[in-house]
Design brief:
This protein is an alpha+beta fold and about 300 residues long. It contains 4 helices and 15 strands. About 35% of the residues are buried.
Length: about 300
């Protein structure tokens, strides 16, 4: 079984707790309905070709959600949705001019230094009891998409770490607000690039050398920051870091519940040339064709 990290609670992550507004008799509260309308109106006023607030993305675990994994008495519920970022794809001529940048097939068109993202989220609990829920963000760049997967053994079902992976305790009939800062989002870009390099150039498997899957989990660990030297990970951090072109937003729990997450993404195109023009015909990146995940640990004899 892989080592599990100690995840942060909502207070450690800087999230803010707010009670739900009283609900109208006979109606269920609507998740973020007022926020959606207000922020969407503001987004329409502030959007430019260099600065943009995307429409909200929502995903929820409901009482009708079937378990993703089930082993004995252990159940794992997980839901995900795609969040695409409106970053331009290069033209054929632009691709030819990009050159090389190992370990990637070519130099990235979008570099992590070209753009800044901030992701604001609201977790909403519609039930009469508090719930523990895990907020997940798994990054994409123009070359690959990260999908952690799980390690299933006779003893347990152990999810690998997502790029952003934190537990929150959401009180009954309440919501929690928080954000992934531009530094957090850049770290996701670095961690994905590092994981790609580890998978393509795995460490030796003899002696006590760490396995590729464990090393990829180490890169995704919330306690890891690429700005701090790590003798195991730093050699795998590429010199060039591709920027993010999207991510998978998810929730995970071990119990049935009615909890949703709603996110808003603010984008600043530092170069002024990498975000698709509003109302234009620019081609944008979709989900990458390659999906990577940590390989399972070797089976001991």
């Amino acid at each position: 079984m892989q080592h599990r990290k100690a995840r942060e609670t909502q207070s450690e992550a800087g999230a803010e707790l707010r009670p739900l507004a009283p609900k109208t008799r006979g109606r269920r509260p609507q998740i973020g309905a007022f926020a959606v309308g207000t922020l969407a109106a503001l987004a329409g006023c502030m959007n430019t070709d260099a600065n943009r607030a995307l429409p909200p993305s929502v995903v929820a675990i409901s009482e009708t959600t079937a378990p993703l994994y089930e082993e004995g008495d252990t159940k794992l519920y997980q839901v995900q949705t795609q969040v695409r970022l409106p970053m331009k794809k290069p033209t054929d001529d632009e691709v030819k001019a990009l050159g090389k940048a190992p370990p990637f097939p070519r130099a990235p068109f979008l570099n992590a230094s070209d753009v800044q993202y901030e992701v604001k989220f609201t977790l909403t609990n519609l039930d009469d009891v508090e719930h523990n829920v895990e907020l997940l963000v798994d990054p994409w760049n123009e070359f690959a998409r990260y999908r952690p997967g799980v390690v299933v053994s006779e003893e347990a079902i152990t999810p690998n770490y997502s790029g952003f992976d934190r537990y929150y305790v959401v009180p009954a009939k309440s919501r929690i607000e928080g954000s992934l800062t531009p530094d957090d989002m850049r770290e996701l870009a670095v961690d994905l690039a590092t994981a790609m390099n580890i998978l393509d150039h795995p460490p030796a498997t003899d002696g006590n050398a760490i396995q590729a899957g464990a090393l990829m989990n180490r890169a995704m660990n919330q306690q890891n920051r690429s700005s701090v030297f790590d003798p195991l990970l730093t050699p795998y951090v590429p010199a060039v870091i591709p920027g993010l072109v999207g991510f998978d937003l998810g929730l995970r729990s071990t119990a049935s519940m009615n909890v949703a997450v709603e996110v808003y993404v603010d984008i600043t195109d530092i170069t002024g040339s990498k975000m698709a023009t509003i109302g234009g015909t620019d081609a944008t990146f979709g989900p990458p064709g390659r999906t990577i995940e940590p390989p399972p640990p070797p089976v001991s004899n």
